[in-house]
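Below is a concrete protein record.
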Amino acid sequence: MAGLVIPMPKAAFFDNDGNPLAGGLLYAYVAGTLTPKDTFTTSALDVANVNPVILDSSGRATIYLTLGEGYKFVLKTSAGVSVWTQDNVMVPAAAATPANPTEIVVHAGATAGSGGIAETTMQTYTLPGATLAANGNAVRVTAQFDLAANGNNKQVRLYFGATVIADTGVVTVQTGGVVEAMVVRTGAATQIAWGRVLLGGTVQAVVTLSAPTETLTGDLIIKLTGESAGAADISGQLMIVETLKKAA
């Protein structure tokens, strides 16, 4: 673990001879002007200092500044004699939060197959509208399921809206399985997608390439379905949805 040099917890000011500026006065203005500008006594910026800030007997004061803004400072002695002026002191802005940060959503399992031959939704997630707000933004989905120990036909599909983006095809095996897919926005209503299937830890030759045309401005359903010849032949165990923002 790396260490950090302690930041200066209090601002300290000195006269032109290097002595602590006891009782000194620090005036704060909007950069490039003589319009007074608040500084603060707390990091929450909820308690303003007096302006000018009056330094203690050791020439110190607690001063917090507003991120992303510019200041002009004028330092004077307690008698009002100017010591120095410093204009255009720019405070760095806070690091921006990505408009579409990576989000991981985990869903608990639900049994499918109770509808017999009918395709049944096992897992579902509503992707909020405008999540994929820019070309290159993407969503990645990983879903896990179990197949019962019988010879019944079974099929698992993963949907992005109305588009199938991963499909096991019809299988009769007893095993655990995973479907994985990635969808990348290429336009307001166009995407490219790929998906693959793993059964029993082996990557299958079932790779789905598609070009969805889902409208992304509104909410969109991502779902995992199961279809089988018998009740409860397939159970959805987990679905993970990640939204990914294209690097700037």
About this structure: Confidence is low (pLDDT under 50) at residues 107-115. The first strand starts at residue 11 and ends at 12. The chain has no helices and 16 strands. The domain at 11-90 is CATH 2.170.14.10 (Tailspike Protein; Chain).
